[in-house]
Design a protein that fits this description.
single chain; alpha+beta; 11 strands; 44% helix
Length: 427
């Protein structure tokens, strides 16, 4: 399991939004004033439906043995009429679909992001983006795909593919019991497609995962059968939590027994505090991908005005994203090793960056002046940059070190000069 830590936090100018740079993962934006962003564990998809939704949605037809879950012709027709896209959104969707077919998932997601801004209530776009995220499968993609499936079902309860993908996402996130309930509900609503090969395969995967989880739980129970520690469940009420927190362990003559009792009680209190905080947490609004954040303890991310987000990266670049679409706008090489600091000027159009190099660089828009090759630090092959960064973030530490040394050697060869030894600043 990866160990994740936040390497930088920043607020926007009026304090309503929070940006969190997660080490070893992606960049997340939280809206602190949006009550609708309260977290839902996605077994609550059941709240989207009532008893009337349990009726068979699709007419019975010849059983499908396909590996995928297709849409019916009637569903496609109804969706097109009800959720008709503007010409621009439709064009973006077609480009995204073409990129998906070419397995260019990074580009496809960019197109879907743009299309969703133009058609925020389209279940088709959310469902398609969910499928693309599941195929790309970067860190956090499956969870984001699950959110998209949930959103699609909010707009259209009969969206078959989103319901099926939701069950698959839940299983991939190791919420196996919720996945089983979701898939059972899917089979009741779409009995014809319960016989498909894709559905039967998912049923087997979920049952296998549940059996494996049960075996692990039984093994853990055997190991701790003599333990006095009682772990808290989510069902415990706040009053119970309060009662536990206020209790003090009674000391007896045996100091060893007293210490064990104190330790067990502290474990329970800490567990309750964790669940209390978790119940009041909020979910993210947007996610920004492409940079690499594993090498240093501090990697800044900041708001650039009202419309852009910027962050440093371990590949010596800093990334600028469109805040609304979450797409990459520009990648600039700010250091020969790592960019740690990215700071906007408070009122002028400047960005300051620094990293391992001894230089601090100032950046501003340039519309007229022609730049020399040495001055032009724009990274043109953005796709390769982001794919390499994903490989680095999921590499073994020694493999990551080798990749970094190789990259630095390539840069030095291109520039025909040496490079100073890497010396990371202490955190």
């Amino acid at each position: 399991m990866k160990t994740l830590s936040i390497t930088f936090l920043s607020f926007n100018s009026n304090g309503t939004e929070l940006l969190a740079n997660l080490g070893g993962e992606q960049l997340y934006l939280f809206n602190l004033c949006d009550e609708s962003s309260s977290p839902v564990k996605y077994d609550t998809y059941k709240t989207l439906f009532d008893k009337s939704d349990l009726i068979e949605v699709l007419p019975a037809s010849k059983s499908s043995s396909s590996e995928t879950i297709p849409d019916t012709d009637s569903q496609k027709t109804n969706n097109k009429k009800k959720y008709k896209l503007s010409p621009k959104a439709e064009a973006l969707k077609l480009k995204a679909n073409a990129s998906f077919e070419e397995q260019n998932y990074v580009e496809a997601i960019d197109y879907y992001n743009q299309a969703i801004i133009l058609a925020e209530n389209s279940p088709i776009l959310y469902g398609n983006r969910a499928a693309t995220l599941m195929k790309r499968n970067w860190d956090g993609d499956v969870y984001s795909a699950m959110r998209d499936c949930y959103k699609a079902l909010m707009f259209d309860k009969t969206h078959l593919k989103s319901h099926f993908r939701l069950a698959k996402c839940l299983n991939d996130l190791k919420w196996h019991q919720e996945a089983k309930e979701c898939l059972n509900f899917f089979c009741k609503r779409f009995p014809d497609y319960a016989k498909s090969q894709a559905c039967e395969n998912l049923v087997k995967d979920i049952e296998k995962a549940l059996k494996s989880s049960k075996n692990k739980e039984d093994s853990a129970d055997d190991e701790h059968e003599n333990s006095d520690t009682e772990w808290t469940t989510m069902s415990e009420s706040e009053s119970e939590i309060s009662d536990i927190s206020n209790k003090k362990p009674k000391l007896n003559g045996n100091e060893s027994d007293s210490n064990e009792s104190l330790s067990a009680n502290n474990d329970k209190i800490l567990k309750n505090i964790y669940y209390q905080k978790k119940s009041r947490a909020v979910d993210f609004n947007s996610r920004y991908c492409g940079h690499c954040n594993v090498a240093t303890d501090i990697k800044e991310a900041n708001f650039i005005g009202d419309n852009f987000i910027a962050a440093g990266s371990d590949d010596g670049s800093f990334f600028i994203w469109d805040k609304k679409t979450s797409n990459i706008v520009k990648v600039l090489r700010g250091d020969e090793s790592i960019v740690n600091c990215v700071q906007p000027h408070p009122y002028s159009c400047y960005i300051a960056t620094s990293g391992i190099d001894s230089e601090i660089r100032l950046w501003s828009p340039n519309f007229d002046e022609a730049l020399t090759d040495e001055e032009d630090r724009v990274v043109n092959d953005v796709k390769s940059a982001v794919l390499n960064n994903q490989v680095k973030m999921n590499s073994h530490p020694f493999e990551y070190l080798f990749l970094n040394l190789t990259q630095n050697a390539n840069w030095n060869t291109e520039e025909g000069g040496g490079h100073q030894n890497l010396e990371c600043r202490p955190s």
